[in-house]
Amino acid sequence: xxxxxxxxxxxxxxxxxxxxxxxxxxxxxxxxxxxxxxxxxxxxxxxxxxxxxxxxxxxxxxxxxxxxxxxxxxxxxxxxxxxxxxxxxxxxxxxxxxxxxxxxxxxxxxxxxxxxxxxxxxxxxxxxxxxxxxxxxxxxxxxxxxxxxxxxxxxxxxxxxxxxxxxxxxxxxxxxxxxxxxxxxxxxxxxxxxxxxxxxxxxxxxxxxxxxxxxxxxxxxxxxxxxxxxxxxxxxxxxxxxxxxxxxxxxxxxxxxxxxxxxxxxxxxxxxxxxxxxxxxxxxxxxxxxxxxxxxxxxxxxxxxxxxxxxxxxxxxxxxxxxxxxxxxxxxxxxxxxxxxxxxx
Length: 345
Ligand code: EPU
Hints:
Blueprint: E1 4-8, E2 20-27, H1 30-43, E3 47-50, E4 56-57, E5 61-69, E6 74-79, E7 83-89, H2 94-103, E8 128-129, E9 132-133, E10 138-145, E11 150-155, H3 156-159, H4 167-170, E12 175-185, H5 197-201, H6 207-221, E13 230-233, E14 239-241, H7 242-251, E15 257-260, E16 264-267, H8 269-275, E17 282-283, E18 286-288, E19 295-298, H9 304-322, E20 331-333, E21 339-340
Parallel strand pairs: 2-5, 3-5, 4-20
Antiparallel strand pairs: 1-2, 6-7, 7-12, 8-9, 10-11, 10-12, 13-19, 14-16, 15-16, 17-18, 18-19, 20-21
The structure holds uridine-diphosphate-2(N-acetylglucosaminyl) butyric acid.
The site of uridine-diphosphate-2(N-acetylglucosaminyl) butyric acid has 19 residues, from strand 13 and helix 8.
């Protein structure tokens, strides 16, 4: 393990922002994490944990130790007639892991194919797509707890998974995720309820075909970060009260919406942004993608400031038109490697 200085993070964040880390280390084991934390303590540096970089907004200079997660491996833990439990290193590429599960006939994650990022990030925002959330198949999450300075295992129940949320978002500086333990099914139970997925899958009700169709839908709507740097959905879909929805629906009867528990309604942020005139629109080098208005794209050498100018303009216009606040999904960092609020200037 080697600590490097002045490392360019552009290749390691999918929005391709120019960001230079004063200190950088790649960690491949829990021992590496401990050594890196000791170094940071001695040098009085904050630690920024970098996973796949597909959900973060980085400033141009970061005075901190950037810890790049690279713990590999898939371990068979336990099985019974119906399930297989697997413990997976946080540094495994998520999509490759999903393909691996399908090839080995372990089922559940097929709807989550092609989501960018690494396995270790999957519990943090409880990644979800096409009617499935990762939390449904996570049994526990193995962490290094920076408060107790011990390794521990957090059960799925204690992770408090909900829409794009978990305890790892509530206490972002505390836990370093080292492994994720999944309990997958040996017999496929296809989830085809989302949008036109059922139609896309057609007659071939195999998990392999479901996975293929999800990949196809994503490829037709969502930009490939290698071609158009992006962080997936830039905003969360807003969840509002039924009462507030009824008011808006009077004026906008076509508003796509999804009923939620507790008298709440989830709206499609992509539709709101589209209707506010932002689909395919840019300010300078940053704009909202022409095929999916919820995805912000860095078209050329944008800085964090350029990104913020664009997304604040989008928030402003959506609020003016619909009186709805959009909240960004990616995590924003300051120059000391600490998480900062999107509301800050
Ligand atoms: N829509 C528009 N215009 C647009 C985009 C969307 O009118 O430019 C409408 C669509 O026609 C549809 C509705 O908005 O009626 C929802 O669109 P879509 O099915 O594409 O899904 P989404 O709500 O925009 C969410 C997730 C995606 C996930 C898809 C599929 C969030 C924030 N985003 O997007 O997740 O892939 O559903 O499940 O929940 C991600 O988080 O990075 C991500 C891509």
